[in-house]
Amino acid sequence: MGANHNTKRYGELWPDFRIALGLAILEKLKPWVTLSGGWAWHFMSPDAHVEYKHAHDHKDIDIFVHPKNVAEVMVILLEEGFQKVWTRYDHLPSTENFRRYEKAEWLPQGRPVRTTIDFFEARELETIQVDGWNLVAPKTLLSYYSNIHSSDKCWAVKAAHDLLVKGLDPVKNELLMKSPVVTKYV
Questions:
Q1: Please, is 35 exposed, middle or buried when counting C-beta atoms within 10 Å of its C-beta (0-12, 13-18, 19+)?
Q2: How confident is the model over 59-72, as pLDDT tens digits?
Q3: What is the DSSP letter of 122?
Q4: Domain 7-177 has CATH 1.10.10.10
Q5: Residue 83's beta-bridge partner residues?
Q6: Contact 40/139 with Cβ under 8 angstroms?
Q7: Model pTM?
Q8: Which sequence spans correspond to the domains of the chain?
Q9: Contact between 102 and 83 (Cβ < 8 Å)
């Protein structure tokens, strides 16, 4: 489980390059993957939303791949310069057959940046389609915050939980992008 957010930092935005790099590789992988984690919440959020750091996580890209599509996805990742990175989780038994790929590159401003993809295999997965993207279904995605994902304090995660408890669909709901901090007026 993620640490509590520092509410004084609410309002910080993800850098444009982080979103652009993520979208660039995801467009190439789109036909073969199901998005999970922060990128699933990204596409479930209202169109043209503000990229608040605390709304959903863009530190890495979480994907699920059906075993029949693994070779295709790996070829694309390797062609795009991604390399396998060993983690402490690689030796653990897992039904998801986890692996991590990373690509390091230099931005035009001369700044290094790393794009990380956490890659899970799954034969069966409850999914939804949103704007042409295959995403882990919200209820299933929420269940991953006890074992696969760690940013359970993100606004979208908390809002989706509350909406589902009320029997409401979180997809494209404005609450996914709303800060949970209530301003008190004296």
A1: buried
A2: 899 999 999 999 99
A3: -
A4: no
A5: 102
A6: no
A7: 0.88
A8: 7-177
A9: yes
